[in-house]
Structures are given as C-alpha cells and as structure tokens.
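re the bet — no i am not wrong, look at it urself. input seq straight from the record:
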Amino acid sequence: MKTLFPPTTGKLCAVLRTALTASPLAYASGVTVGPELPATKTARMVTVRDDSGPDDGVQTRRRYGINVWARRQDAELLALLCMAVLRSCADGQPITATDSFSGPYSIPDDPAYVVGNEDLVHFFFTFRVSARGVDY
C-alpha cells in the first residue's frame, strides 16, 4: 500500500482569501492571495510557498513560508492577522494541525516593490502544516 498526500497550498490560499475578505479590518481589504506574486502588483499581497521536502508515513508535515507586502502602516498587522487565521485553519480535511510558527520578520526588498508612489513593506513568517494522507 502507498500513501497519497493531498495538496495543501490551495487550501491555505483559499482559507486566507476567505478570512481576509470577511474581515472588517481596513488593512485586510483588497488583499491579493496566491502561490506567486501577481503580474500587476497591488497595495496588499500575500504569497503562500511550500518549502517542504518529501513525504513519509501516513501524515505529512509541510513547512510553509508566507510573504506579506503592504503599506508601512499595514504590513505587520496584516502579517499577524494571516498568522492568526492560519493558526486556526485545521479542519481535518486535509489539514489536521498547524504549529511551529516563527516570525513575522521584516525583509528588505531590493529594489523595493512600489505601488502608486509608495514603497511596500515586506514581512515573512513560517509555520508547519500536518495533513493526513490516504492509502491507495
């Protein structure tokens, strides 16, 4: 028997999009969320990157890196909101737990991302996702 591990990047992107769209907080509005930066930069962007290696056993533990870009007054708050959302996204389908959060850390971009006439501030954090595989 072999174990098939479900993809979790799309699930994490969807969870963040839903939570940020529903948030009444001004710094959460209009956020672009995806596995890559959009071709046209927006004032608030979040990328979800899988930094994991191979899977083993019946449970996978995936390491993720989350990048957040926003205006200076919003960036760290947005990163902290994303962390809070991801801490509570385990629903067993397929994510069974999230843990080992570190950050957020300020990252200097060279050159800076500019939207309008404003430099965006970049924050980064990591965490781990556990997901249950299915035998096939």
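see?? The first strand starts at residue 3 and ends at 4. told u. also The helical segments are 9-22, 75-87. so pay up
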